[in-house]
Amino acid sequence: MKHDFSELKLDRVTRRFAGAGGKAFNALDELTLTVKRGEFIALLGPSGCGKSTALNCIAGLLGLSGGSIWLDDLRLDTLPPEKRGFGMVFQNYALFPHMSVERNVGFGLRMQGVPAAEIAPRVDRALALVQLVGQGHKLPGQLSGGQQQRVAIARAIVIEPPLILMDEPLSNLDAKLRIETRAEIRRIHRELDRATIYVTHDQDEALSLADRIVVMKDGAVQQIAPPPEVYAQPANLAVARFMGYRNVLELDVAGQEGGRVSLAGPGISLAGVAKQPIDGRRAAVAIRPEEFAVGAPDGPNTIAGRIDNVEYSGRDALLDVVTASGAVLHVRGPVTFRRGDEVRVHVPPERVLVYRPD
Ligand code: ATP
To answer: Per-residue confidence of the chain (358 residues) as pLDDT tens digits?
Structure first.
Protein backbone atom coordinates (compact mmCIF):
# COMPACT_ATOMS: atom_id res chain seq x y z
CA MET A 1 0.00 0.00 0.00
CA LYS A 2 1.44 3.35 -0.96
CA HIS A 3 1.77 6.00 1.74
CA ASP A 4 2.52 9.10 -0.27
CA PHE A 5 -1.20 9.59 -0.88
CA SER A 6 -2.83 12.98 -1.09
CA GLU A 7 -6.47 12.19 -0.37
CA LEU A 8 -9.01 9.57 0.61
CA LYS A 9 -12.31 9.99 -1.12
CA LEU A 10 -15.64 8.57 0.03
CA ASP A 11 -18.19 8.80 -2.74
CA ARG A 12 -21.83 8.29 -1.68
CA VAL A 13 -20.85 5.45 0.66
CA THR A 14 -24.02 3.64 1.76
CA ARG A 15 -24.63 0.66 4.02
CA ARG A 16 -28.01 -0.98 4.35
CA PHE A 17 -29.10 -3.35 7.10
CA ALA A 18 -32.22 -5.41 7.72
CA GLY A 19 -34.05 -3.57 10.49
CA ALA A 20 -37.05 -4.47 12.65
CA GLY A 21 -39.52 -6.72 10.83
CA GLY A 22 -36.98 -7.36 8.07
CA LYS A 23 -37.46 -3.85 6.62
CA ALA A 24 -34.16 -2.60 5.20
CA PHE A 25 -32.82 0.78 6.27
CA ASN A 26 -29.69 2.77 5.51
CA ALA A 27 -27.49 2.85 8.63
CA LEU A 28 -25.22 5.01 6.47
CA ASP A 29 -26.75 7.04 3.69
CA GLU A 30 -24.57 8.45 0.90
CA LEU A 31 -21.59 9.68 2.90
CA THR A 32 -19.46 11.82 0.59
CA LEU A 33 -16.22 13.19 2.02
CA THR A 34 -12.70 13.93 0.84
CA VAL A 35 -10.02 13.60 3.52
CA LYS A 36 -6.74 15.33 2.73
CA ARG A 37 -3.41 13.99 3.91
CA GLY A 38 -2.62 15.49 7.32
CA GLU A 39 -6.30 16.05 8.16
CA PHE A 40 -7.99 14.98 11.37
CA ILE A 41 -11.67 14.22 10.80
CA ALA A 42 -14.15 13.54 13.61
CA LEU A 43 -17.38 11.65 12.91
CA LEU A 44 -19.72 13.01 15.56
CA GLY A 45 -23.27 12.11 16.46
CA PRO A 46 -25.55 10.40 18.97
CA SER A 47 -25.60 6.65 19.52
CA GLY A 48 -26.95 4.79 16.50
CA CYS A 49 -26.33 7.59 13.98
CA GLY A 50 -24.06 5.40 11.85
CA LYS A 51 -20.57 6.52 12.92
CA SER A 52 -19.19 3.03 13.54
CA THR A 53 -20.85 1.76 10.39
CA ALA A 54 -19.01 4.47 8.43
CA LEU A 55 -15.68 3.61 10.06
CA ASN A 56 -16.15 -0.12 9.49
CA CYS A 57 -17.02 0.49 5.83
CA ILE A 58 -13.79 2.49 5.42
CA ALA A 59 -11.77 -0.21 7.25
CA GLY A 60 -13.30 -2.96 5.12
CA LEU A 61 -14.89 -4.75 8.09
CA LEU A 62 -18.27 -4.07 6.46
CA GLY A 63 -19.06 -4.23 2.75
CA LEU A 64 -20.80 -1.31 1.03
CA SER A 65 -24.37 -1.39 -0.25
CA GLY A 66 -23.55 1.53 -2.53
CA GLY A 67 -20.89 4.07 -3.41
CA SER A 68 -17.11 3.72 -3.53
CA ILE A 69 -13.94 4.52 -1.58
CA TRP A 70 -10.73 5.76 -3.19
CA LEU A 71 -7.17 6.43 -2.06
CA ASP A 72 -6.15 8.83 -4.80
CA ASP A 73 -6.85 6.78 -7.96
CA LEU A 74 -6.85 3.39 -6.24
CA ARG A 75 -10.29 1.92 -5.58
CA LEU A 76 -10.31 0.52 -2.04
CA ASP A 77 -13.81 -0.70 -1.29
CA THR A 78 -13.32 -3.88 -3.29
CA LEU A 79 -10.17 -4.78 -1.28
CA PRO A 80 -10.22 -6.84 1.95
CA PRO A 81 -9.22 -5.00 5.17
CA GLU A 82 -5.63 -6.27 5.23
CA LYS A 83 -5.02 -5.02 1.68
CA ARG A 84 -6.23 -1.53 2.63
CA GLY A 85 -3.51 -1.39 5.30
CA PHE A 86 -5.26 1.05 7.65
CA GLY A 87 -4.43 1.25 11.36
CA MET A 88 -7.37 0.74 13.71
CA VAL A 89 -7.83 1.68 17.35
CA PHE A 90 -10.93 0.49 19.22
CA GLN A 91 -12.69 1.48 22.40
CA ASN A 92 -11.71 -1.77 24.17
CA TYR A 93 -8.01 -1.70 23.09
CA ALA A 94 -8.32 -5.23 21.59
CA LEU A 95 -4.78 -6.20 22.65
CA PHE A 96 -3.65 -9.84 22.86
CA PRO A 97 -3.49 -10.39 26.65
CA HIS A 98 -0.88 -13.19 26.53
CA MET A 99 1.55 -11.24 24.30
CA SER A 100 4.04 -8.69 25.57
CA VAL A 101 3.57 -5.05 24.59
CA GLU A 102 6.41 -5.44 22.06
CA ARG A 103 4.83 -8.50 20.46
CA ASN A 104 1.43 -6.82 20.36
CA VAL A 105 2.89 -3.79 18.61
CA GLY A 106 4.94 -5.93 16.20
CA PHE A 107 1.99 -8.17 15.32
CA GLY A 108 0.98 -6.36 12.15
CA LEU A 109 4.57 -6.30 10.88
CA ARG A 110 4.97 -10.06 11.45
CA MET A 111 1.69 -10.61 9.56
CA GLN A 112 3.06 -8.54 6.70
CA GLY A 113 6.22 -10.73 6.67
CA VAL A 114 8.55 -7.88 7.54
CA PRO A 115 12.04 -9.32 8.37
CA ALA A 116 12.67 -9.75 12.11
CA ALA A 117 15.70 -7.45 12.07
CA GLU A 118 13.49 -4.62 10.83
CA ILE A 119 10.65 -5.26 13.27
CA ALA A 120 12.51 -4.44 16.52
CA PRO A 121 13.62 -0.92 15.55
CA ARG A 122 10.19 -0.10 14.10
CA VAL A 123 8.45 -1.29 17.28
CA ASP A 124 10.90 0.79 19.34
CA ARG A 125 10.12 3.87 17.25
CA ALA A 126 6.36 3.36 17.64
CA LEU A 127 6.69 2.87 21.41
CA ALA A 128 8.78 6.04 21.61
CA LEU A 129 6.12 7.97 19.71
CA VAL A 130 3.45 6.96 22.22
CA GLN A 131 5.88 7.51 25.12
CA LEU A 132 6.07 3.92 26.31
CA VAL A 133 9.85 3.42 26.11
CA GLY A 134 10.95 0.69 28.53
CA GLN A 135 7.46 -0.89 28.81
CA GLY A 136 7.84 -3.29 25.88
CA HIS A 137 8.42 -6.44 27.94
CA LYS A 138 5.26 -6.03 30.05
CA LEU A 139 1.96 -7.77 29.46
CA PRO A 140 -1.09 -5.53 28.69
CA GLY A 141 -2.64 -6.50 32.05
CA GLN A 142 0.30 -4.87 33.84
CA LEU A 143 -0.49 -1.48 32.30
CA SER A 144 -3.10 1.16 33.08
CA GLY A 145 -6.04 1.71 30.72
CA GLY A 146 -4.40 4.81 29.26
CA GLN A 147 -1.13 2.95 28.66
CA GLN A 148 -2.98 0.04 27.05
CA GLN A 149 -4.70 2.43 24.69
CA ARG A 150 -1.30 3.90 23.78
CA VAL A 151 -0.08 0.34 23.01
CA ALA A 152 -3.10 -0.02 20.72
CA ILE A 153 -2.18 3.27 19.03
CA ALA A 154 1.46 2.11 18.63
CA ARG A 155 0.18 -1.11 17.07
CA ALA A 156 -1.93 0.88 14.64
CA ILE A 157 0.83 3.27 13.58
CA VAL A 158 3.74 0.82 13.39
CA ILE A 159 2.57 -0.43 10.00
CA GLU A 160 2.83 3.19 8.77
CA PRO A 161 -0.72 3.30 7.47
CA PRO A 162 -1.96 6.11 5.27
CA LEU A 163 -5.05 6.36 7.43
CA ILE A 164 -5.68 5.73 11.11
CA LEU A 165 -9.22 4.89 12.15
CA MET A 166 -10.24 5.35 15.77
CA ASP A 167 -13.57 4.24 17.23
CA GLU A 168 -14.31 5.98 20.56
CA PRO A 169 -10.75 5.25 21.78
CA LEU A 170 -11.07 7.27 24.99
CA SER A 171 -14.43 5.96 26.23
CA ASN A 172 -12.96 3.55 28.77
CA LEU A 173 -10.60 6.07 30.36
CA ASP A 174 -11.36 8.26 33.36
CA ALA A 175 -11.92 11.99 32.83
CA LYS A 176 -8.35 13.13 33.55
CA LEU A 177 -6.70 10.42 31.46
CA ARG A 178 -9.15 11.10 28.65
CA ILE A 179 -7.99 14.70 28.38
CA GLU A 180 -4.31 13.72 28.56
CA THR A 181 -4.65 10.94 25.98
CA ARG A 182 -6.64 13.29 23.74
CA ALA A 183 -3.67 15.65 23.61
CA GLU A 184 -1.38 12.67 22.90
CA ILE A 185 -3.56 11.55 20.00
CA ARG A 186 -3.42 15.03 18.48
CA ARG A 187 0.38 15.16 18.88
CA ILE A 188 0.86 11.69 17.35
CA HIS A 189 -1.40 12.65 14.45
CA ARG A 190 0.71 15.78 13.77
CA GLU A 191 4.00 13.88 13.95
CA LEU A 192 2.82 11.12 11.62
CA ASP A 193 1.43 13.47 8.98
CA ARG A 194 -1.07 10.91 7.69
CA ALA A 195 -4.83 11.18 8.09
CA THR A 196 -7.02 10.25 11.05
CA ILE A 197 -10.74 9.50 11.12
CA TYR A 198 -12.03 9.51 14.66
CA VAL A 199 -15.47 8.39 15.81
CA THR A 200 -16.97 10.00 18.91
CA HIS A 201 -20.28 11.00 20.47
CA ASP A 202 -18.49 13.59 22.61
CA GLN A 203 -18.67 17.09 21.16
CA ASP A 204 -15.75 18.35 23.29
CA GLU A 205 -13.50 15.62 21.91
CA ALA A 206 -14.53 16.43 18.35
CA LEU A 207 -14.09 20.18 18.86
CA SER A 208 -10.65 19.84 20.43
CA LEU A 209 -9.20 17.22 18.08
CA ALA A 210 -10.60 17.69 14.62
CA ASP A 211 -9.72 19.88 11.67
CA ARG A 212 -13.21 19.15 10.36
CA ILE A 213 -16.24 17.60 12.02
CA VAL A 214 -18.77 15.44 10.20
CA VAL A 215 -22.02 15.64 12.19
CA MET A 216 -24.34 12.70 11.57
CA LYS A 217 -27.91 11.79 12.46
CA ASP A 218 -29.93 8.73 11.42
CA GLY A 219 -27.22 7.66 8.96
CA ALA A 220 -27.19 11.00 7.14
CA VAL A 221 -24.58 13.75 7.19
CA GLN A 222 -25.98 16.96 8.71
CA GLN A 223 -22.94 19.21 8.43
CA ILE A 224 -19.25 19.02 7.50
CA ALA A 225 -17.26 22.00 8.77
CA PRO A 226 -14.34 23.10 10.96
CA PRO A 227 -15.09 23.08 14.72
CA PRO A 228 -15.69 26.85 15.15
CA GLU A 229 -18.29 26.76 12.39
CA VAL A 230 -20.12 23.72 13.76
CA TYR A 231 -20.07 25.37 17.19
CA ALA A 232 -21.28 28.83 16.14
CA GLN A 233 -23.37 28.08 13.06
CA PRO A 234 -24.99 24.66 13.34
CA ALA A 235 -26.57 23.76 10.00
CA ASN A 236 -29.94 22.83 11.47
CA LEU A 237 -31.84 22.38 14.70
CA ALA A 238 -30.64 18.80 15.18
CA VAL A 239 -26.98 19.87 14.99
CA ALA A 240 -27.67 22.86 17.26
CA ARG A 241 -29.24 20.62 19.91
CA PHE A 242 -26.34 18.22 19.70
CA MET A 243 -23.79 21.05 20.00
CA GLY A 244 -25.20 22.29 23.30
CA TYR A 245 -27.92 24.74 22.27
CA ARG A 246 -30.12 23.43 25.07
CA ASN A 247 -32.80 26.10 24.71
CA VAL A 248 -34.98 25.52 21.68
CA LEU A 249 -38.16 27.60 21.68
CA GLU A 250 -40.85 27.74 19.04
CA LEU A 251 -42.05 31.33 18.60
CA ASP A 252 -44.26 33.41 16.31
CA VAL A 253 -42.60 35.62 13.74
CA ALA A 254 -43.87 39.02 14.94
CA GLY A 255 -42.20 41.24 12.37
CA GLN A 256 -39.42 41.53 9.83
CA GLU A 257 -37.37 44.56 8.95
CA GLY A 258 -34.34 44.54 6.72
CA GLY A 259 -32.24 41.55 7.65
CA ARG A 260 -33.71 41.41 11.16
CA VAL A 261 -36.66 39.60 12.59
CA SER A 262 -38.60 39.88 15.85
CA LEU A 263 -40.13 36.84 17.47
CA ALA A 264 -42.64 36.45 20.24
CA GLY A 265 -44.23 33.84 22.46
CA PRO A 266 -46.01 33.94 25.81
CA GLY A 267 -43.83 36.10 28.08
CA ILE A 268 -40.98 36.10 25.57
CA SER A 269 -40.13 38.65 22.94
CA LEU A 270 -36.89 38.79 21.00
CA ALA A 271 -36.00 41.61 18.61
CA GLY A 272 -33.18 42.38 16.19
CA VAL A 273 -32.40 38.73 15.52
CA ALA A 274 -30.53 37.99 12.28
CA LYS A 275 -33.00 36.60 9.78
CA GLN A 276 -32.49 33.11 8.44
CA PRO A 277 -34.32 31.52 5.52
CA ILE A 278 -37.52 30.78 7.44
CA ASP A 279 -40.89 30.58 5.86
CA GLY A 280 -44.24 30.86 7.56
CA ARG A 281 -45.24 32.50 10.80
CA ARG A 282 -43.42 30.17 13.17
CA ALA A 283 -39.71 29.80 13.84
CA ALA A 284 -37.55 27.90 16.30
CA VAL A 285 -34.80 29.73 18.14
CA ALA A 286 -31.75 28.02 19.65
CA ILE A 287 -29.77 29.60 22.49
CA ARG A 288 -26.88 28.25 24.58
CA PRO A 289 -27.22 28.35 28.38
CA GLU A 290 -24.03 30.44 28.64
CA GLU A 291 -25.35 33.18 26.33
CA PHE A 292 -27.83 34.48 28.90
CA ALA A 293 -26.93 37.21 31.37
CA VAL A 294 -28.77 36.68 34.64
CA GLY A 295 -30.06 39.62 36.68
CA ALA A 296 -30.57 41.98 33.75
CA PRO A 297 -32.81 45.07 34.03
CA ASP A 298 -36.14 44.99 32.21
CA GLY A 299 -35.73 45.79 28.51
CA PRO A 300 -35.60 44.24 25.06
CA ASN A 301 -34.69 40.58 24.79
CA THR A 302 -35.17 40.10 28.50
CA ILE A 303 -37.25 37.27 29.88
CA ALA A 304 -38.61 37.08 33.44
CA GLY A 305 -38.93 33.84 35.36
CA ARG A 306 -38.47 31.99 38.61
CA ILE A 307 -35.56 29.65 39.35
CA ASP A 308 -36.85 26.13 39.72
CA ASN A 309 -33.59 24.22 39.98
CA VAL A 310 -29.93 25.03 40.63
CA GLU A 311 -27.24 22.60 39.49
CA TYR A 312 -23.95 23.60 41.06
CA SER A 313 -20.92 23.10 38.82
CA GLY A 314 -18.04 24.83 40.59
CA ARG A 315 -17.28 28.04 38.73
CA ASP A 316 -20.96 28.65 38.00
CA ALA A 317 -24.33 26.92 38.11
CA LEU A 318 -26.89 25.69 35.64
CA LEU A 319 -30.21 27.33 36.48
CA ASP A 320 -33.63 26.17 35.30
CA VAL A 321 -35.68 29.33 34.90
CA VAL A 322 -39.43 28.84 34.47
CA THR A 323 -41.22 31.66 32.67
CA ALA A 324 -44.78 32.83 33.45
CA SER A 325 -46.06 30.65 30.60
CA GLY A 326 -44.29 27.56 31.96
CA ALA A 327 -41.42 27.43 29.46
CA VAL A 328 -38.14 26.24 31.02
CA LEU A 329 -34.93 28.07 30.12
CA HIS A 330 -31.57 26.49 30.89
CA VAL A 331 -29.27 29.31 31.90
CA ARG A 332 -25.69 29.41 33.13
CA GLY A 333 -25.34 31.89 35.97
CA PRO A 334 -23.61 32.77 39.22
CA VAL A 335 -23.68 30.23 42.05
CA THR A 336 -25.32 32.79 44.37
CA PHE A 337 -28.87 32.19 43.09
CA ARG A 338 -31.29 29.96 44.94
CA ARG A 339 -34.39 27.99 44.02
CA GLY A 340 -37.43 30.27 44.15
CA ASP A 341 -35.53 33.46 43.23
CA GLU A 342 -37.26 35.69 40.69
CA VAL A 343 -34.82 36.66 37.92
CA ARG A 344 -34.62 38.34 34.56
CA VAL A 345 -32.37 36.86 31.92
CA HIS A 346 -31.12 38.72 28.88
CA VAL A 347 -29.82 37.30 25.60
CA PRO A 348 -28.02 39.45 22.99
CA PRO A 349 -29.87 39.09 19.66
CA GLU A 350 -26.68 38.08 17.84
CA ARG A 351 -26.55 34.98 20.08
CA VAL A 352 -29.97 33.77 18.97
CA LEU A 353 -30.03 31.32 16.07
CA VAL A 354 -33.20 30.95 14.05
CA TYR A 355 -34.33 27.77 12.28
CA ARG A 356 -37.37 26.26 10.72
CA PRO A 357 -39.29 24.39 13.42
CA ASP A 358 -38.95 20.55 13.38
P1 ATP B 1 -22.78 3.83 18.82
O2 ATP B 1 -22.08 5.08 19.22
O3 ATP B 1 -23.88 3.42 19.76
O4 ATP B 1 -21.87 2.70 18.45
P5 ATP B 1 -23.07 4.50 16.02
O6 ATP B 1 -23.36 5.90 15.67
O7 ATP B 1 -21.68 4.03 15.87
O8 ATP B 1 -23.60 4.20 17.49
P9 ATP B 1 -23.79 2.31 14.34
O10 ATP B 1 -23.18 1.25 15.23
O11 ATP B 1 -23.07 2.66 13.10
O12 ATP B 1 -24.07 3.63 15.17
O13 ATP B 1 -25.28 1.83 13.99
C14 ATP B 1 -26.11 2.57 13.12
C15 ATP B 1 -27.45 1.87 12.99
O16 ATP B 1 -27.29 0.63 12.32
C17 ATP B 1 -28.11 1.53 14.32
O18 ATP B 1 -29.48 1.70 14.17
C19 ATP B 1 -27.75 0.09 14.54
O20 ATP B 1 -28.71 -0.54 15.34
C21 ATP B 1 -27.74 -0.44 13.12
N22 ATP B 1 -26.83 -1.57 12.92
C23 ATP B 1 -25.50 -1.59 13.14
N24 ATP B 1 -24.96 -2.78 12.83
C25 ATP B 1 -25.99 -3.56 12.39
C26 ATP B 1 -26.11 -4.90 11.91
N27 ATP B 1 -25.04 -5.69 11.79
N28 ATP B 1 -27.34 -5.34 11.55
C29 ATP B 1 -28.43 -4.55 11.65
N30 ATP B 1 -28.38 -3.28 12.08
C31 ATP B 1 -27.20 -2.78 12.46
So the answer is: 446 789 999 999 999 998 888 889 999 999 999 999 999 999 999 999 999 999 999 999 999 999 999 999 999 999 998 888 899 988 887 899 999 999 999 998 998 889 999 999 999 999 998 888 999 999 999 998 888 989 999 999 898 889 999 999 888 878 888 888 888 889 889 988 899 999 999 999 999 999 999 999 999 999 999 999 999 999 999 999 999 999 999 999 988 888 888 998 888 889 888 877 677 788 999 999 999 999 877 878 999 999 999 999 999 999 999 998 899 999 999 999 999 999 999 999 999 999 988 8
Q: Does the C-beta of 45 come closer than 6 Å to ligand 1?
A: yes
Specify whether the backbone of 183 is left (phi greater than 0), alpha (psi in -120 to 50) or beta. Answer: alpha
| Distance from Cα 47 to the centre of ligand 1, integer Å | 8
Q: How many other C-beta atoms can be found within 10 angstroms of the C-beta atom of residue 278? A: 17
Ligand 1 lined by 48 (C-beta under 6 Å): yes
What gap in Å lies between CA 109 and CA 113, rounded to an integer? 6
Hey, how many other C-beta atoms are within 10 angstroms of the C-beta on 135?
Answer: 18
Q: Which protein residue's CA is at the shortest distance from atom 16 of ligand 1?
A: 27
What whole-number distance in Å separates Cα of residue 345 and Cα of residue 86?
Answer: 51
Nearest CA to ligand 1 atom 28: 17
Residue 194 per-residue DSSP state: S
Q: In a 3-state reduction of DSSP, which class is residue 189?
A: helix
